[in-house]
Amino acid sequence: MKSSNGESSRKLTANVKAAGCAAKISSLELKQVLSSIKRPQCPELLTSLDNFEDAAVYKITEDIAIVETLDFFPPVVDDPFLFGRIAAVNALSDVYAMGGNPVIALNILCFPTCDYPLEVVEEILKGGQAACSEANVVIAGGHSIQGPEPVYGLSVTGIVNPKSMLTNGGAKAEDVLVLTKPLGTGVMLLGMKGELLQEAQNKQLFQSLTMLNKGALQIAKKYQPSAATDITGFGMIGHASEMALASGLSAYLYIDELPFFAGARSLAAQGFVPAGAYGNRNTFSSSVINLEHIETAIQDLLFDPQTSGGLMFSLKEEPAMRLLAELKENGYEAAVIGKMQTGTPGSIFLEG
Amino acid sequence: MSTPKGNEDKSASDTAQRLDLRGLMCPEPVLRTKKVLDGKPLGGVEVLVDSDINVMNLTRLANSLGLILESKQGEDGYTVVIKNSKNQAHSHERQATPKGKTAPGTDGGANRKDAKTTTVVFIAKDTFGEGDRDFSLNLMNLFLQTILQSGHRPQAILLANTGVRLMDPESSVSKVLSEFKDAGVDVFACGLCVEFYGLKEKIEKEQITNMYAICEYLFSADKIIAP
Question: Which of A75, A90, A68 is nearest to A23 (CA)?
Fold first, then answer.
């Protein structure tokens, strides 16, 4: 896509080694590092790091808790405004994934001012503001530094009633899984960088990347999900496995029901697979049953790190069907993609 | 990582175009290789890359184009050769199914009796020679049965023009052809012909190919049998 700041300046993604959530440090490396750090007990902290929650929840009163999260990454697109917007939508998502309502945010910015004109920074921040305005979140400040590669994101604080917060660990056996956005952003963003996407594909991708998960959460809350997460850097399999593990269950994924971006499968088959997908494969493939019987391109899409991905809800089948219908009525590319079963905790069974 | 097969066959790299794509970030290596291969459908590209991620992505690219990839790790990166393999039938299988479905088995040529000299049977009409029609149809059946029973395993049986009728499930020959298929022989029908004779619904998509792939088989074969 064209850079909005003219042909002469450098492309925003030019120096970026890993884009979006594909820039995440691998789950294995992270676990290793964190395991050596001792943390004192805190009774007000309602989330456990062991359950890989999307955000931390801290109890203030019996009815009020704050949800804390932050997320930032290098540019995924060359248009600075669009990048800012996507990064903010992605950061806000973690609060929605906990069932919370984000209220206040701070900008996180790293930028090489020697390499790009200042207007680029302005556009990035405007994009972040646009997403926060849409979400009714106030940006109250932030922190910026110089660095070799642009990075932007937000620290977000939200509010949730502890009794209705949605964790990874609440899923019940026989629940079905509802996903609210198509999969394959990592692969599609590589295709976009390679200028291989058609106009309609770009449109579908950007629409999904800039769509807040706020509306999907509001709809889902009516159907009382037992657990929720957002599908981001660890990919479909990684996040499903984390939810299953935290809930002591096994997740079944229906390969034929998974929604993918149009063209994602063909791009993946041609080798447009981000490094993060291989990292996720290394981390999670040992938990996956039946992987070898699935087409390689689909496997890659299941491990593909998602930027600004959808929410995944776990809930009883009957309300899940009503939730799916209402999501679809409201224009979400949602699908029932699997179910929770008793089994080896954290294992994923692919039903193809 | 892709299974490195060593560098047994140097001939492919003789005429290979060399690309040094080290230092480039994803998706540049796969994109640039793709652009070169788009103009070289038979492969013949040697690529230098610096990470195993690139090798894995190039493996996918090669597979999607029905080409063979060989990679070797050196001191300053990986040397990847993408080529059209003469003696390995599975490259053609993939060519005939360009949708990216991985062809079953990676060493398709290994259990083949005629692996050293590749033989292709090319059938461009449904009868064995000209003569009484029913008799000529039966002769074709007998011809294929005899090949099957004598243990000859050609690399491929290619059907064109009225020859594609032999793949019609209602034809008595279709059973013999599926036995060849089960024995690892590539059995393909010309897509245009299938369409012209109205057999599109009756013949499985995976067994339909195009003139390009047919020519590839014919030109890479050591021996062509055309009854």
Answer: A75
